[in-house]
Amino acid sequence: MKCLSQLFPCGLLLLAVSSQPALAEDVFSTVMQGGFLTKENWTVTLGAGAIYGPKYEGSAESSVSPVPFVEINWNDTIFLSPGDGLGVNLYQNKGFVVGTSVGYDGGRQESDSRSELRGLGDIDAGVSTSGFLSYEYKFIKAETKVTHVFGGADGTTVDLGLQTFIPLAPLLKETPFFIGTGPIFGSSSTNKDGPGGPALLLGVSTTWADENYMDGYFGVSSQQSAKSGLTDFDASAGFKSVTGDATLVVPLTDHINLGTNVGYTRLIGDAADSPITRDTNQFNAGLFATYTF
Q1: How far apart are CA 121 and CA 105, in angstroms?
Q2: CA distances from 93 to 19, 78, 98 (A)
Q3: Which burial class, exposed, middle or buried, applies to 136 when counting CB atoms under 10 A from its CB (0-12, 13-18, 19+)?
């Protein structure tokens, strides 16, 4: 799931309400019975928000950006979302989910920070393909995701993450908010047994990247060095970051969710040592609202 990447805020993904899960053997029979066109099997979530964060990974400059959101989900099996792209949960059983997706990687533009990236050129956009495995037990979820980008840096990353869901309704004697059906872990969730109402989601993750990715985003070639004035730097494969984030989700009705997210990423290894990195401490925050049909 894309919550583990640096390209999209986890908070907005976690505001989407999941549909009921379907086992792999049920998908074929449902489609054959006309279930693919059945309205009840589809969930559409629209939303918008704003995020505050670094202009690029390693930047010392931050900015505020608007974030539109559209997520479409069929029977918790086929999905389309900004974070994960177009994907399918191939297998779901007893908390395990195995799936794959195709998405878009925006690369990095020199214009993202003219003062910090001057002379380094652009990293072209590309198509990303991912495979993921997750396991969810009660209020804890672990996930591994492998992503390769074709084009741009032409690199591969591996995300390892752990999340926990804390329902706040039992802790609140009285709340002015409607206690509706609260989300658990987002579009790929297979658990809707948790209580509704306000919820706190806490996550930790780390990202490993291969040499192509690291050298593309954190390396400085001799040509780039001559143009930018930065020292030559060869970035090797390895773990590049560790991240912690917290998301507060408040369902106002059965359809409307509000949320806020804060996160901290620490760049490590060659990502931290790179002359492109101006600050190894990366902070972000966001406010979001979604409506689910």
Answers
A1: 17
A2: 15, 16, 9
A3: buried
